[in-house]
Amino acid sequence: PAVMVAHILLTQLDPERPASLSPAVVTGLLREELGFAGAVLTDDLTMGAVTQSYGLGEAAVLAVEAGCDILLVCHGQDSVPAVRTALLEAVASGRITAERLDESVYRILRLKTEYALTNEPVSPPDLEALNAQIGAVPVQ
Known about the structure:
mainly alpha
């Protein structure tokens, strides 16, 4: 129902952009050629493979233009406003259309419905207990 696209270079499909920001990879290969209809997530947009070549806001806009539905921004909440602002500006200017956003919204809602996901906050896991369980698994 969902797939994460890495920031790898697939130079035979797109010699300039990492896969996660490439329309040739996300829309062309994944959606059109392979027929994938589920949600597409980026890998963390704050990773060096992206930030060394793009600003965070521009990377987010490129990812949506490429066909990604969910953008991961994993290191620091202070990065989120830059992404939000860039996306809102791209929509206001017409660079990202309402139709393009609707495509993502429908895929995300379908995923949330299928797995009964809500927007209710969840408590973080007890990492010590989780690590203890992992440590108790016999190694063969």
